[in-house]
Design a protein that fits this description.
Nucleotidyltransferase, domain 5; 4 helices; 5-stranded mixed β-sheet; globular; alpha/beta; 147 residues
Length: 147
């Protein structure tokens, strides 16, 4: 068991005709997660197909999945890294949660944080190598279910 775990999460949400005004805001989604120990070694790569949902719902469901799986590796300190600035700002309290359709997911994450000694949230651009690796894992999972 690690005393500190870095978790890199990405969710892909494929929304058909996303460029067209008036489009539906839901798409089929999956998430990819990297679990990295205190020595910088990737100890696990996991993914989950999430189904049809909005982008914030996909990001939150990826976070719930990651927090659940993190318990297999540690109960101590977690660093959560995501390219979703909105989710990170909600989780750090910079933005107040006002979206009723995802409030239950936010509440679930806050409850799951209690499993660990400390949970910190960080934003990183999607262009970082670890973010790109998590994105590839998510897209591979998506392709298994949508092909």
């Amino acid at each position: 068991m690690s005393s500190k775990l870095k978790i890199v999460i990405d969710a892909c949400c494929h929304i058909p005709n996303a460029h067209i005004k008036g489009r539906v805001g839901k798409g089929f989604s999956a998430c990819g997660v990297l679990f990295i120990d205190e020595y910088g070694e990737i100890v696990s790569e996991q993914s989950k197909y999430l189904g049809e949902m909005t982008v914030p719902e996909a990001e939150f469901n990826g976070l719930v999945f990651a927090l659940d799986k993190a318990a297999e590796h540690t109960r101590d300190n977690l660093e959560i890294w995501m390219d979703s600035e909105l989710i990170i700002r909600w989780m750090n309290g910079t933005y107040r949660m006002r979206k009723n359709h995802i409030k239950s997911l936010y509440d679930e994450v806050k409850k799951m944080e209690g499993r660990y000694k400390k949970v910190e949230y960080f934003h990183h651009p999607g262009s970082t190598p670890l973010a790109q690796q998590a994105d590839k894992i998510a897209n591979k999972e998506y392709q298994k279910h949508r092909s």
